[in-house]
Amino acid sequence: MLSSECGAGATSAAGAAVAAALQFFAASQCLVREDWPINAAVDNRSSWDFVVVGGGTAGAALAARLARLPGSVLLLEAGSDPPVESIIPGFRYSLKGSQYDWNFTSVDDSWSSQALRGGQRQPRGHMLGGSGSLNDMVYARGYPADYDEWATIVGDIWNWTTVLEYFKKTEYLTDERIIDDPELMKYHGRSGDIEVTGLRESTNVTDRFLEAFKELGFAMVKDMTYPKLIGAGRFSHTIRDGRRDSTLTAMLNKVENDRNNLKVVKQAFVTKILIQNNTAYGVEVLLNGDQFTFFANKEVVVTAGTFNTPKLLMLSGLGPKDQLENLDIAVIKDLPVGENLHDHIMVLTFLAADNGTCYSPKSESHMDVIRYLYDRTGSLSMTNSMGAYIKDPSVDGPLFAIYPSCMPVNTQFYQQCVELLGFKEKICAKLQSELENYEVLPLAVVLLKPKSRGRLRLQSKDPSAAPLIYSGTFNDTSDLTAFPDALNVAWSVANTSYFRMKNARVVELEVDVCADSSELEKVKCDARAMATSAWHATGTAALGAVLDARLRVRGVAHLRVADASVMPKIIRGNTNAPVVMIAERAADFIKEEHYGTNYT
Hints:
Layout: H1 16-31, E1 47-53, H2 57-66, E2 73-76, E3 104-105, E4 121-122, E5 138-139, H3 144-154, H4 160-170, E6 171-173, H5 182-185, E7 194-196, H6 204-215, E8 232-234, E9 236-237, E10 239-240, E11 243-244, H7 247-250, E12 262-265, E13 268-276, E14 279-287, E15 290-302, H8 305-315, E16 318-319, H9 321-326, E17 333-334, E18 345-353, H10 362-375, E19 386-391, E20 398-404, H11 414-419, H12 425-434, E21 439-447, E22 455-457, E23 468-470, H13 483-492, H14 497-501, E24 505-506, H15 519-530, E25 531-533, E26 559-561, H16 576-595
Parallel strand pairs: 1-2, 1-15, 2-12, 6-7, 15-26, 16-17
Antiparallel strand pairs: 3-4, 5-9, 8-19, 10-11, 13-14, 14-15, 18-21, 18-24, 18-25, 19-20, 20-21, 22-23
Helix pairs in contact: 2-16, 4-16
């Protein structure tokens, strides 16, 4: 039912048609409105059983689970509510680079990414829901080998068999390509909080790419999370009734808070974890321009993400001794915080082709807007992304992924290319010139298990200063070894039947630093120069190094971490669903330790 503020009835017969139209558009705003958690007024120096730092993917899930327990919970989020664009799947690219993004950029290392203007862009959600409010909604888990690898580091409580049950716990699968297949359903949940959906119908773009990869010998995969078949297929996505579904919308927003034990405070920037006698007991927070202190009777749990979590730990005296001492920060525990930073390495390559693959007339785009405003259907209500996995010869899992997409003729790409992707003007101008007469097909070729490692360091003691992010991309040169073959697979798409008919060809970008390289070395040089982040950074507060197997900071009582920073090694796929799994695990660890295993 629409609230009274969502529209008003017509009062004049003469203006009935206009009034009806206005009422429709006013009412349509309610279809994309979300009632976010209220911003609680809390007292300075108040005490809580649990203080959760960061209201992103992990923090929203964890706070929702902790709210079911007897204790009080304070969730502190540095950002504000997401804007309406975050709800609409078709606007999934619009928030990157905006005020709702932390807008991190890595330090230019002069070794990799020379085609970029400076370092690699690292979009991260700066709002309630975190990166789960601006990501592409792809539901991926990684592969059994990923978690069995974790188990060799910290024990079997992180092996595939165990974590699979936690994936299933949160999942409400409605993907019509999967639900009728008993074998696939062994790996899915049907009663969880977050909807995982997909359609049998596809778009022309996706169909053409799938045909191409099938022609290249890839297996066709109905379920891209199925661990026993590696190939090409369409992803499932976290979408419910045409709207983004996330730990914020599906879990935190749905908390039944009759006991009033969960408070959410927005625009609350945590600057320090308070630690005494190797025990965390609270946090310092900048709130409304003033410094607040909140105390935690049971635990402080940090869920601020791969970049902000290690930054906060180091500001609080937990990190590499030499770095903290150089900044005159009192060392509480000498831990490898900020080490082990790694990410999927993405190299973008491009095909140009005659018009017709991703073309749609403007009239259809306008109708899609109206469809969405009317009943949340049409292209804005979904995302039909797909991928093709190239098998890792050493393990049951993929080594590379290829993610294709399509830009119609006359797409205005230059500004996004320069500002969001961060490429140099010459490269972006070349791509924009191709778009004047051709469709451009970006192919993201992504190394899923890099050996290269970077690190994160503090820029200063000032909590408002962005951290220094050293990506480490290709500092293990063996990561370059397989890139020529993977790029050749991507380029082979141009030689398949349909794309050959469209006169597809590889766009030569002429990266300056590689101009004098031999043929094979030029491919590697181009890959190194074009390399950027796939926006899946992990590992900066890793299990087994900074944390014990139950996500507790080593040597510090009552302090836990639960976000992508805990991954000791990155998984083979998008990281959002694994972060939800990590938050679910943290909630159970907390429940067991403070309330006993029999508490439900």
